[in-house]
Amino acid sequence: MAVQSKPAPIGPWGKATAGAAGAVLANALVYPLDLVKTKLQVQVKPSETDKTAGDEPHYKGTWDAISHIAGADGIAGLYAGMSGSLIGVASTNFAYFYWYSVVRTLYIKYNKTSGNPSTVVELSLGAFAGALAQLFTIPVAVITTRQQTQKKEDRKGLIETAREVIEGEDGVCGLWRGLKASLVLVVNPAITYGAYERLKGIIFPGKTSLKPWEAFLLGAMSKSLATIATQPLIVAKVGLQSRPPPQRQGKPFKSFIEVMQFIIENEGPLSLFKGMGPQILKGLLVQGILMMTKERVELLFILFVRYIRTARSRHAARGAALATAAKAVAPLTVK
């Protein structure tokens, strides 16, 4: 049974605000996992004869990375670059949910369909919305990745890191490094939210408002599917946006294909999936909390809008009653 589509009572701005609020809350709660997965994805295991990466720590896994980072930099080290990350998360998710809501509403309106779009259409709409969001928000992602991979002694603020990127060989265009990989990766949110809509109709048919645990379950399931399918591209994108590994002697990667080739040559094909443990765990928690929070915030928006409309109606009715009373009293006053 398909879920019947109805016009969104809060519109694209409300959906976007709800999505951004949920994303910021979720990412703030699990930020250390985001930092760790980034460090795991950019590290290159040095060979016995290769000494160029001797000064770079090599983490064996998620817990090993957390222990070493906390030991070297303190608990604060696990939150390095968080401010920039949350700005990026808020802007990306606001843009994504806004455009996704707009294009989905337009599709349903002009195709005059009574049910949800098909899975292929959902994926296409999600990809289009994701591409639009990436064009505007990728500079923040580039800066955040740089901040997360900086050593403690080289750590800089948001503006200083942006200046460092701009002063590189790519100039201002460096802020859009990895754009092609990011555009390819729009399949990730497309799969995520397309799967979310599909699973919602299958597991909870006919429900327009989900309970927190239901939204969490759907969000976690859909994000896991998307992460497994796109992990090599995620690793390549991080490699593009971070500083090049010591083996490259300062030479940045030019494409995500070049990153993938480098990883395969130096570490083997399975390394294209490095960092997948914290990536999936982070995705499970973030997407679950995000969708759970988004559903609650949307409900609050709906209640707020209804309250405003009711208040306006009461005010208008009161005004009309006073006007009627005034007209009835006016002739008596004239006499």
From TrEMBL:
Q: Which UniProt keywords apply?
A: Membrane, Mitochondrion, Mitochondrion inner membrane, Repeat, Transmembrane, Transmembrane helix, Transport
Tell me how this protein sits in the membrane.
Multi-pass membrane protein
- The yes or no answer to whether the keyword Mitochondrion is present is yes
Does the keyword Transmembrane belong to this entry?
yes
Query: What's this protein's name?
Result: Mitochondrial carrier domain-containing protein
GO molecular function ontology, one term from the record: ADP transmembrane transporter activity
Q: Which organism is it from?
A: Cercophora scortea
Span-the-membrane segments of this chain are 76-100, 120-143
* Major site of localization recorded for this protein: mitochondrion
Location(s), subcellular:
Mitochondrion inner membrane
What does the similarity note say? Belongs to the mitochondrial carrier (TC 2.A.29) family.
- Give the top-rank taxon of the lineage listed in the UniProt record for this protein: Eukaryota
- Repeats (Solcar): which ranges? 10-106, 117-202, 210-300
Q: Which GO terms describe its cellular component?
A: mitochondrial inner membrane
Checking Pfam families in the record gives: Mito_carr
